[in-house]
Amino acid sequence: MLDKRLLNEAQKVRGYFAAAVGLGLGSGLLIVLQASWFGRIVNGVFLEDQGLGEVKPWLMLLLVVILCRALCAWLSEVFAQYTAALVKDELRQKLLAHLYHLGPVFVRGERTGELVNLFVEGVEAIEAYFARYLPQLALAALVPLLILGFVFPLDLFTGLVFLGTAPLIPLFMVLIGKWAEGLTKKQWAALSRMSAHFLDVLQGLTTLKIFGRSKSQAQVIARVSDDFRESTLGVLRVAFLSALVLELLSTLSTAVVAVALGLRLIYGQISFAQAFFLLLLAPEFYLPLRLLGTQFHAGTAGAEAAKRIFEFLAQVPEERGFHQGTGEIPPGPLRISFQDVSYTYEKDRAPALRGMTVDLFPGEITAIVGESGSGKSTLAYLLLGLIRPDRGQININGVPMDQINPEEWRRNLAFAPQHPHLFSGTVAENIRLGRPDASDEEVEEAVKLAGAGQFIQ
């Protein structure tokens, strides 16, 4: 469940991630000290008849270790959450920038609900991956090695038991992970389908009401929701099963260590202080591996979400769109000339425009009328420079449009879409969408020219 592309994203915040793992490793070192000093206190009180005054310094040190361990665990989580937040912010910015780069022609062919699900739920799944799964994966590899470094010099047999049983836990995780991967894909597909269909129904509710089809859509949504429920329960069953297997393995392994230490203690082959110290370390040795099992679902969900995110980022705009001219618009009143312009959205389909030849003169009002699908929107996209003709040419004051800087050209255009949208915010913020740097006086002038002053007030 390691995605190389996600690991590349982590490179940008590797300092915070290293701090999270380093603090977790420090917590592992404090675990060893805690077990050692606690074993010394118990051995002194029960076997060496030491009083409170003799063990009080060790109790104070033990309290400091416990507090430091809690602090390390808290700071490790803080750094992990901050790492995840930075990665999420970076991915969301990349997704939005790429969506803008693909343009409205691409978005028109996508289901809005699926895109919203990818931008929201998909990126949120990345948070659990970076904040919990990835740091725990690193700690599951490092903390047991740290503990083995203290155990082997002290007792070879216990070290061999640890070393022999520990690989069984990741082995079972890999086996269960292969099973869970397919279920997670099914769950993500069901969630995307449900999100897309639900948003489509909301957007088309007026039409559905007019034709009396709203109640039937409620049944469809119920069926799609039920599919998502079943796929989610399937993933959770696997997650619970993996946790059960890991808990069982770690418990049995700890029991083996405890029985072996008990028998050797009875026959005088090991001291009580050593045996108690090793027994205290046994559950701590398996704890990072068990915790990794609890983050199993977060790992699979994050990896599947990452796959969808990077599939979206890998999409490239059509070569026919977004001309990259650098020239300026010729001076004078604008005259736009379409010369034998044709455009087809998909191969083997009828062209949206075929042989369009028309001149648009300055100072004139030209209305383009026609049936739905006759190419009116395509004409607007061509004028905006979002797509380029398959055949023919568009000239601006005699200069091909492909040679003009698209940003410079769009400063001369005003576009009112078929379905306009007011964004959350103030009226002034919506007016400034075209020119964010416009002054208050310029905004007021625009309101006056649009005749919108009365109803805005």
3D architecture notes:
The protein is mainly α and 457 residues long. The protein is built from 15 helices and four strands. It has helices at residues 4-11, 14-46, 52-108, 112-154, 156-165, 168-203, 205-210, 214-266, 272-294, 296-313, 376-384, 406-410, 427-431, 440-450, 453-456, and strands at residues 336-343, 353-360, 391-396, 399-400. The chain has a four-stranded antiparallel sheet with strand order 2-1-3-4, covered by helices on one side. A hairpin with a 2-residue loop joins strand 3 and strand 4. Helix 4 packs antiparallel against helix 6 (168-203). The model has no long low-confidence stretch (mean pLDDT 82).
Question: What is the fold's blueprint, element by element?
Answer:
Blueprint: H1 4-11, H2 14-46, H3 52-108, H4 112-154, H5 156-165, H6 168-203, H7 205-210, H8 214-266, H9 272-294, H10 296-313, E1 336-343, E2 353-360, H11 376-384, E3 391-396, E4 399-400, H12 406-410, H13 427-431, H14 440-450, H15 453-456
Antiparallel strand pairs: 1-2, 1-3, 3-4
Helix pairs in contact: 2-3, 2-4, 2-9, 3-4, 4-5, 4-6, 4-9, 4-10, 5-8, 6-8, 6-10, 8-9
